[in-house]
Task: structure prediction
Amino acid sequence: MRVMLVDDHALVRSAIRQALEASDVTVVGEASSAEEALELAPRMRPDLILLDIDLPGLSGIEAVRELAPRLPGTHIVMLTVSTDRRDLLTAMRHGASGYLTKDLTGDALLRAVRGLRHGDLPMSRSHAAVVVEHLARGGTASGTDADAVADLLSAREREVLRLLAEGMTDREIAGGLSISPRTVESHVSSLLRKLGVRNRAEAAQRYRAR
Result:
């Protein structure tokens, strides 16, 4: 797995790099600001970006909003000291694949990174509970509320989910949105994780129940 680190503290980046040293994980790039990440990431196209929130200039939240639509094949996971509920939900809404805090041990961080390959959600149980509670509260009036779903999914993921609910195949969705089938698969995988469902049928059912 090719990883890019975005953090404005060189010592933090060094510690993360050391924690991720493994035969199957390689740190291929580093950025000290969101602006630098916006320039480097589209050229490097890493498999994963570990992105801090509190950055000089543009914040990590603004960076994920810019990077997620441009790099649909890249997982963007927030790695931050912030435990703020709003930061968590906003990051997920703008396309983050997960949310980790810097009190993780090095071993736990490496496990979380490796787990992405198997579709695991890189997020603590407490943060996952916040996301689920947010969805549940938003859906109390009418099943699974569309606005609550929209809070978690990026604009492109919402389009894919809508077409998925209409019974379209990946190839048909790709043609309709002028993107590749592989990109569609990446969006589907991401929205399944965010909605906490096991398969496309459950995702479609949730959308139709809005």
In short: The beta strands are 2-6, 26-31, 48-51, 75-80, 98-101.
